[in-house]
Write a structure and sequence with these properties.
By secondary structure, the chain is an alpha/beta fold. The radius of gyration is 26 Å and the shape is globular.
Length: 740
């Protein structure tokens, strides 16, 4: 409490404050039998007791019993409560009888991090454990293929390419009896869609395999096992929270930049001797925050995707060794990689979902230490909502992970990969979605078809080698002086790498000189490290095509969900001062020729009522503002991040909200299913703001393509109030020009 009082006093420098403090204490899960009493091999029991495990938790014992009977299980329990042991103990018991398991971790770093932990339990068991990933040399691979280990640790990327390109690897993977997918919460969006298809290929599309999943921070059901793994199973639950004590604080930024405030707070914590991790959700924000922190005496390293692997590994090692006091990270450090004991976590922005909040906060105070967690709440609609309702922030339910198993871009990757393995596949032997993907590949010239049989071609192998499980769209390579310094996936690359944009990498500043979407290259040049400004793109979105998948009435409104073809056109950008208290514009640049990119995704179309006395401008102010607040509400009801959903508004009253990810992520579908609740939250946002007629706390969107013009909080409030009365609205098609 002394620390919190000192921090609160320090925050007054920026007129910020600790708005709410919540102390979390969680008891251990319910105990089960003593290890010496359970029916396991005596050597395994001796190893468990030697490792300090003398008694199992009840949920561990329940999960173990099911796994020993080859039942499909999802194990859900909080951080540090023994999930790994719950699946590892029965699999080691099976290993001593000659059965093999494949443990799948989402990253190479996490997979290797688990190796030493697993080896602690295998002493004297005559059970071999090996890692197989892209970093393993040819000789080690040969030994693994010739003498397969009882426990193989790998990642989905390795399985994806290995199944397609290596007969030895196929035999190794398909020869296992059990498969574990740890860190299930990571597999949302595109990565979740890819995982499902990788498992489909392991089981030869629709066969049977034994799968165990584990996570601490998701809402799981038997339906999730079917969607994510393609198998029937059941859920075993421990406790929903982490072990130990944590002190959570919501910080009211009171209009101050969240990045500046997070950097300042990190400086205060580091000076107090606390090892600190700052989370952001944007690669560029990670770089910017680390630069700002230097002004407050904190030298924070950066850990994010898109930088060289060697740089990330160096940061991890320095954290473990204690030579680094702080780091700014994107979700790359959400996972359970061993980076030593952290004292505090700062979330520079409200995380995309409550599941991610729980996961990130669990990184502080491990190993029986108190953890301090600070969440900076800014002027966004949802942040303002939680400042009014702080208890609701901590009492939220965990949301299920969202992904889209009909994402055709993902399916094309795995259809081509499976065909490359088999060389030929009959149309009649494939499920309908796989056939549709094959037909798309035929149109693109990647595969061929003759008399109902698909054949791999010379282009199939090149296509498969170029694919990634971490994206569903093309990736733009960023280079400076001919050297690669980063990469960005489309369509996000349009917003970060348009000509004139300020791009940050490894705490260095660059200006984008050229973006070539044909060659997928962006050329940047170095500028001074603290240019004092940042950029935001101006863009328009056009809905080209819509194919309805389903429809329903929501509060009397006709709402359709389906497949969309969109064109994004960046028309220029705005330059902002980096250090002003409020966003201050330095200038605006418009291109003679917009930069455009067309792609397919999924989303919903809502038809709102017209208000007779409103002219065209008043109607657009209402519809555009309502689009913004519904997307904001999606953060609560659908677990969406600030960039997962985007929208378009039409003068006809149609509002389009779509997945920003190519092919679809599943987030817009969850919003479609929970739209009634989204309108309730949207009304709370616009009704309780104290601004005149629109501000960042209610209807402004930091990612708005037209710089938050044509918005009215009051008109949106009237429109939503009218919607909640449930009057029927007639359906028709979008008409007129879009706002964004």
């Amino acid at each position: 409490m002394d620390l919190l009082e000192k921090l609160n006093e320090g925050l007054k420098v920026f007129n910020a404050s600790l708005a709410h403090v919540y102390t979390e204490t969680a008891l251990d899960p319910e105990v089960g039998p003593e290890v010496k009493e359970v029916d396991l091999d005596e050597r395994l029991k001796e190893n468990l007791i030697a490792s300090g495990i003398e008694r199992l938790y009840r949920y561990q014992w329940e999960a173990m019993g099911l796994i020993l009977k080859d039942k499909n299980v999802a194990i859900i329990s909080g951080t540090g409560t023994g999930k790994t042991e719950a699946f590892l103990i029965p699999l080691l018991e099976k290993a001593m009888k000659g059965e093999r398991s494949v443990l799948i971790y989402p990253t190479k770093a996490l997979a290797r991090d688990q190796l030493s932990r697993i080896n602690n339990f295998t002493r004297s068991l005559d059970v071999s454990v090996n890692v197989l990933d892209g970093d393993v040399d040819r000789e080690t691979r040969r030994k693994i293929y010739e003498d397969p280990p009882e426990v193989l640790i790998t990642n989905p990327d390795m399985i994806h390419l290995g199944l397609s390109l290596s007969p030895d690897f196929r035999h190794l993977i398909r020869g296992a009896e059990h498969y574990v997918v740890d860190e299930m919460h990571v597999y949302e969006g595109v990565l979740g869609s890819h995982l499902r298809r990788v498992l489909d290929r392991i089981r030869e599309i629709e066969g049977e395999i034994h799968v165990v999943g584990a996570s601490g921070t998701i809402e799981a059901s038997p339906f999730l096992l079917n969607e994510l793994f393609g198998v029937e199973g059941q859920v075993v639950r421990g406790v929903s929270r982490r072990r130990g004590m944590a002190i959570h604080s919501l910080v009211n930024s009171n209009g101050m930049s969240r990045w500046t405030l997070s950097a300042y707070l990190a400086g205060l914590l580091v000076r107090e001797g606390l090892k600190t991790l700052v989370f952001v959700d944007s690669q560029q924000m990670a770089e910017r925050l680390a630069k700002i922190a230097e002004r407050f005496g904190a030298n924070l390293a950066v850990h994010r995707a898109g930088i060289l692997k060697e740089e990330r590994e160096e940061v991890e090692e320095k954290l473990r060794s204690g030579s680094l006091q702080g780091v700014v990270a994107t979700p790359t450090l959400e996972l359970g990689i061993d980076i030593g004991s952290l004292d505090s976590v700062i979330m520079a922005e409200n995380p995309p979902s409550y599941s991610k909040y729980v996961q990130r906060s669990g990184r502080a105070g491990r190993r029986n230490r108190v953890g301090f967690i600070f969440t900076i709440l800014g002027d966004s609609p949802i942040d303002s909502y939680f400042l009014r309702r702080p208890q609701e922030f901590f009492s939220r339910r965990l949301t299920p992970i969202t992904f889209d198993n009909t994402n055709m871009e993902v399916l094309k990757v795995h259809a081509a990969s499976y065909l490359l393995e088999k060389m030929r596949l009959k149309r009649e032997d494939l499920p309908d979605l796989w056939v549709k993907a094959m037909e798309g590949l035929v149109q693109e010239g990647v595969v061929s078809e003759n008399h109902g049989t698909f054949y791999a071609t010379s282009r199939t192998r090149d296509f498969v080698r170029s694919t990634s499980l971490r994206s569903s769209g093309p990736v733009v390579e960023v280079s400076a002086d001919g050297k690669k310094i980063g990469e960005r996936e489309l369509p996000v690359a349009l917003y970060d790498l348009h000509p004139g944009a300020l791009y940050l990498a490894s705490k260095r500043s660059y200006e984008v000189k050229e973006l070539d979407l044909k060659s997928l290259e962006a050329r940047v040049v170095r500028v001074k490290d603290d240019p004092g400004y940042y950029t935001k793109p101006l863009y328009m979105v056009d809905l080209r095509e819509f194919t309805e998948v389903e429809e329903r009435k929501v509060l009397g409104l006709p709402v359709k969900y389906g497949e969309m073809t969109l064109t994004i056109s960046v028309i220029g950008y705005v330059i902002y001062d980096a250090y002003s208290r409020k966003e201050r514009t330095r200038g605006r640049v418009e291109y003679e020729d917009p930069i455009s990119f067309t792609y397919k995704t999924k989303g919903l179309i809502i038809k709102h009522p017209a208000v007779e006395e409103w002219d065209l401008m008043s109607s657009m102010e209402a519809y555009h503002a309502t689009e913004h607040v519904l997307i904001s509400a999606g953060r609560v009801v659908a677990g969406a991040s600030m960039t997962d959903l985007s929208g378009i508004s039409y003068p006809s009253g149609h509002v389009v909200i779509y997945d920003s990810t190519i092919g679809g992520s599943g987030v817009s579908r969850l919003l479609y299913q929970r739209l009634e609740s989204a309108y309730d939250i949207a009304l709370d946002i616009v009704k309780n703001c104290d601004c005149e007629d629109g501000c960042p706390k209610c209807v402004y969107d930091p990612y708005c393509g037209n710089n938050n013009r044509v918005l009215s909080r009051r008109k949106s409030m009237r429109l939503i109030d009218l919607v909640l009365k449930g009057n029927e609205v007639e359906d028709d098609s979008p008409k007129g020009e879009s706002v964004r």
